[in-house]
Structure formats: structure tokens, C-alpha cells
Write a structure and sequence with these properties.
Length: 176
């Protein structure tokens, strides 16, 4: 009656589907755009930002594209011949190289995250909080009880005393 109940064997979970990585075409486009930005020394950094804006279609990406395009043009203007020996020429080239590094890193991070497969979540129901009926846990030792014979004899003696007290003692004595 009280004992361990055989539990059903756990059902095996289905094997998780292996997430596939980006395709060869995606990797090729990623490499080509990165090489294009680096070899052009940042002059064509707007191409990578345009790819991100078209790919993700968010307002933030379009704003970053237009801001980067304006900054790119602002960096190219001081590189003209008439500013050849001025600080503006140097500042424009430094800004263009810094922009190249930032756009390249941003493009790679966003493109990799965009093409990363969604994580697969396996939902496993939690175990029941408690068993449906009371049981004694494994390793539980019940408290020792006094031997039953002594206790029964003591109860009998007390009941005999009570019955003696409650019996009428004589004929003349009545209840009041």
C-alpha cells in the first residue's frame, strides 16, 4: 500500500536540429564588401552601410547609412589638391581611416548577427511538485514506538477504573 510507485520511463527528447550556418554566397558577399572597404581606404565604406540598411530595413540603419555617406563626403573634400599641405588634409584622411575601421567592424558584427540562426529552445515540462499521495521518502526511518502490549494494558486498566467510578454503588444511592 505504501511504497514506491514505479514511475514511467522518461520519454527521450527529440534530437535537436543542427543549426545551419550562413551560406557560401553570404560569406562571399561579406568578404567582398569587407575587402572593398579596406582596399578603398574607406572611400567606399558607404556600400557596406547600404547593404546593412537594405538587408535589415530599419530606420536606424538608414539613418546610419545617410550619416556615414555625408561624413564620407565631408572627409573626401579636404583631400583635394588645394588643401594638400594643410591640417585639413591630414584630418580628412585620419577621419576617413577611422571611419573605415569603424564601418568594417560594424558591418561584420551586424551581418554575422543578422545571419545567425535563432536558438532552438526545447521546452521540457517541470516535474510534479509533490506526489499525488503521501509516501515515506527514501531513507526516512519512522520514530520508534513503545511496544503495543504495554500501552494496551495501561489503557485497559484506566478504563476499568473509570467504569468502577461510574457504576452505581448501592440500591439506596441514586442519582441526584
Amino acid at each position: 500500500m505504501y511504497g514506491q510507485v514505479p514511475t514511467p520511463a522518461p520519454t527521450p527528447l527529440p534530437a535537436p536540429v543542427r543549426a545551419t550556418g550562413p551560406s557560401a554566397a553570404t560569406i562571399t558577399v561579406r568578404v567582398l564588401l569587407t575587402v572593398l572597404v579596406v582596399l578603398s581606404l574607406g572611400f567606399l565604406a558607404w556600400v557596406a552601410m547600404l547593404r546593412i540598411a537594405i538587408m535589415r530595413r530599419s530606420g536606424r540603419d538608414w539613418a546610419l547609412f545617410w550619416g556615414q555617406l555625408v561624413l564620407n563626403i565631408a572627409c573626401v573634400v579636404p583631400l583635394e589638391q588645394r588643401f594638400a599641405d594643410t591640417w585639413m588634409n591630414t584630418a580628412g584622411m585620419v577621419a576617413l581611416l577611422v571611419q573605415m575601421a569603424i564601418v568594417t567592424c560594424y558591418f561584420l558584427v551586424v551581418d554575422i548577427r543578422h545571419h545567425q540562426p535563432a536558438p532552438i529552445l526545447i521546452m521540457v515540462p517541470p516535474p510534479p511538485a509533490r506526489p499525488p499521495y503521501p509516501y515515506q521518502p527514501i531513507g526516512h526511518v519512522p520514530a520508534p514506538q513503545p511496544p503495543g502490549g504495554q500501552r494496551i494494558d495501561q489503557v485497559r486498566a484506566e478504563l476499568d477504573e473509570l467504569s468502577d467510578l461510574l457504576r452505581p454503588r448501592g440500591e439506596g444511592e441514586g442519582r441526584a
